[in-house]
């Protein structure tokens, strides 16, 4: 009906968007690099002397090297069994 955007069993079944149960070493390294960049930004804002509620909350969070692997490589979701889902 919609040409290239027509529905198919593969598209509707979600097979194109499954997240793997185990991350590859490359994807783990990329996730760690993103967390380190976030830590660097938080540290730069703290060093600039700006004070705000958001910064106070961000400083309470653990840094990348302090986080357990469960928190680094999974995301909380109330809808999944075990309340965790993998990174996409």
UniProtKB/TrEMBL annotation:
Coiled coil: none annotated. It holds the Pfam family L31. GO terms for cellular component: mitochondrial large ribosomal subunit. Keywords: Ribonucleoprotein, Ribosomal protein. The keyword Ribonucleoprotein applies. InterPro entries: Ribosomal_mL60 (IPR016340). One of its GO terms (molecular function) is structural constituent of ribosome. PANTHER family: 54S RIBOSOMAL PROTEIN L31, MITOCHONDRIAL (PTHR28271), LARGE RIBOSOMAL SUBUNIT PROTEIN ML60 (PTHR28271:SF1). This is 54S ribosomal protein L31, mitochondrial. It comes from Favolaschia claudopus.
């Amino acid at each position: 009906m919609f040409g290239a955007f027509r529905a198919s069993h593969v598209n509707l079944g979600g097979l194109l968007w499954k997240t793997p149960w185990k991350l590859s070493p490359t994807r783990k390294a990329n996730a760690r690099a993103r967390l380190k960049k976030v830590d660097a930004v938080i540290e730069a804002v703290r060093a600039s002397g700006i004070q705000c509620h958001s910064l106070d909350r961000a400083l309470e969070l653990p840094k990348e090297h302090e986080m357990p692997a469960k928190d680094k490589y999974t995301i909380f979701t109330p809808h999944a069994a075990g309340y965790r889902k993998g990174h996409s």
